[in-house]
Design a protein that fits this description.
By secondary structure, the chain is an alpha/beta fold. The protein has a domain at 33-84 and 155-318: Alpha-Beta Barrel (TIM Barrel). The protein has an 8-stranded parallel beta barrel with strand order 1-2-4-5-6-7-8-9, surrounded by 7 helices. It has helices at 2-27, 33-42, 66-75, 106-109, 123-126, 147-154, 169-178, 193-200, 218-230, 247-258, 280-284, 290-298, 309-318; strands at residues 50-54, 79-86, 92-94, 159-163, 185-189, 208-214, 236-240, 262-266, 301-306. Helix 3 packs parallel to helix 6.
């Protein structure tokens, strides 16, 4: 009887331990999709090709809008590219242009003598405006979102690339810390390494920084030289070029990859990715988009910003290069 009692007690103790382990395991933080994307994005050994969607799904919804973001997340993109500006009352909003004339029905709402610059408008004034569709016709109800609203939409689901935003780095960083998203936000500029370092000197977690290097422009060549002289490149570099036959492009490509960094390319316009016949629209016109995209994989590219995210994702999945 005593022996049986010991067996029962041992079994109960083991069951308790298993329950405790199970409880602890269930409480451990799970890796989000955004975590998995960031891990691949920053890992030089990863063969995963991240897809960034330019201003969200602007072909079907107003650019930089919440519906445009939701649409590309459903497509399976890894990174949503957004643009920001600061309102008169210091609220960061999603807007590519410094003014709201192109993307909203501003002139129908306000008199001609009123400034359309984001920095001259309060967010309450901006909320009176309806965002335009891609062909310039206003929607019924879609308004310009704040960066906070956009990040909350993206949190855990997708990473974010903030373009035209490095001037607001402290504000973006503060918001990212509050939302626990610092490791999921990429921010970029064409500033020199020393200028960038002075901005990034803020203590604590930092956003992922990516320089924009244009192989065929004087500013880009200078930036490349400065990074080369400093002994290394950031984890990911955006490389632009108009002519891949130019020796500068090949030199930069090899140096960036050789340093252990990764390359981001924009296929949204041919002027950013090798000239005519090399962009998303060229790929869209072909039966096999790989006739355009394959060479970027051959170049060692690990992230592609596109205006045709669904097409690119489908092609990459067939190549076994887009599976988390």
């Amino acid at each position: 009887m005593i022996k049986l009692k010991r067996v029962i007690l041992s079994a109960l103790a083991l069951a308790a331990c298993l329950c405790l382990f199970s409880s602890c395991s269930s409480q451990a933080p799970k890796q989000s999709r955004a975590d998995a994307i960031a891990a691949h994005f920053l890992n030089p050994a990863s063969k995963y090709v991240a897809v960034a969607s330019h201003r969200g799904d602007w072909r079907n919804y107003p650019e930089n809008s919440i519906p445009a973001i939701e649409s590309v997340i459903k497509m399976g993109v890894d990174i949503v590219e957004l643009d920001i500006h600061l309102t008169k009352d210091s609220i960061l909003v999603l807007s590519h242009d410094p003014d709201v004339k192109r993307c909203t029905d501003f002139r129908k709402v306000y008199p001609k003598d009123k400034s359309a610059k984001v920095c001259d408008l309060t967010y309450e004034e901006i909320l009176q405006l309806r965002l335009n569709r891609g062909h310039g016709i206003a929607t019924d109800s879609i308004r310009m979102p704040t960066l906070r609203q956009a990040l909350l939409c993206c949190k855990g689901r997708v990473c974010v690339n903030i373009d035209k935003g490095f001037d607001y780095y402290p504000q973006v960083l503060e918001l990212a810390k509050e939302l626990d998203m610092t490791g999921h936000i990429v921010i970029k500029s064409k500033m020199t390494p020393s200028a960038v370092d002075s901005v990034l000197a803020i203590g604590g977690p930092k956003l992922i920084y990516m320089p924009v290097i244009d192989a065929q422009k004087a500013r880009g060549r200078l930036l490349f030289e400065l990074y080369s002289e400093s002994g290394g490149f950031p984890p990911v570099c955006e490389l632009c070029w108009q002519n891949e036959e130019d020796d500068a492009f090949e030199t930069m490509r090899r140096a960036i990859l050789g340093s252990g960094s990764k390359i981001w390319v924009n296929t949204i316009w041919s002027s950013l990715c090798g000239g005519p016949g090399n962009d998303d629209d060229a790929a869209f016109e072909l039966d096999d988009p790989g006739e355009v995209y394959q060479k970027y994989l051959d170049f060692g590219v690990s992230a592609i910003q596109t205006d045709r995210p669904e097409m690119l994702i489908n092609w990459l999945e067939k190549q076994g290069r887009h599976k988390l």
